Amino acid sequence: MTKADTMDKRLAALDAVTGAAVFAIVEELYGLDLASAPVSPDAPRLGEAVDACLADNAGRPAGSALRAAINAACGVNLDALSALEGKRISLYSKGRWMLRADDDLFVVQTGDGDADVAIYPTGRYADIAGTRALPAELTEALVRLGYADNGPAGCSYADPAGEAVPDAFKGRTMAALLDVIRRSFADV
């Protein structure tokens, strides 16, 4: 069961869903302290966004609605994190590890405000592949998306306007990584 599914079950089991309960569930499941999470400058404060979601849904919002409100307010996509569980991709974002496991093959690291992204192999990948360079097929896919090929250092992308990379771009990036993992490393 994913963290998102577990969150939904925990919310459904509550007599009353409160902002504090949502924050506690997210911290327990995802290890994220939403009370100290940075908020997007053009978004409502996180507590206000969660409270609005609760009010709009008579105090019983779907977990997906709460996760969408959290994503809109602070740029943490809990559904995407849940979807990446066990997919062998480490994610470093917002100054902390969001996902990380010993058998991960690649790291996706975002900078301040998610305006830049670096992708590079893990030590586990180097042990399996015998090289620190990204697979050529992955590098080619990332370059097609607009990433720069930095040779053995991996690939990087920086939004020209300094804006946060859109979720759709993040999705295409993850799809490229997952495709290479599925095709080349499924049995490893």
Distance between the termini: 23 Å
Trace the largest sheet across and list its strands. 2-1-3-4-6-5
Instruction: Average the pLDDT over all residues and give the rounded result.
Output: 91
What structural category characterises the helix and strand content? alpha+beta
Mass-distribution shape: globular
Largest sheet: 6 strands, mixed
Question: If you had to describe this structure to a student in words, what would you say it looks like?
Answer:
This protein is α+β, with helices and mostly antiparallel strands and 188 residues long. The chain folds into two domains: 3-81, no CATH class; 87-185, no CATH class. Helix content is 47%, strand content 14%. The chain contains eight helices and six strands, in the order αααααββββααββα. The protein has helices spanning 3-13, 19-30, 46-56, 63-74, 78-83, 123-129, 136-145, 167-185, and strands at 89-93, 96-99, 106-110, 116-121, 148-149, 155-158. The protein has a six-stranded mixed sheet. α7 (136-145) runs antiparallel to α8. It is globular. The mean pLDDT is 91.
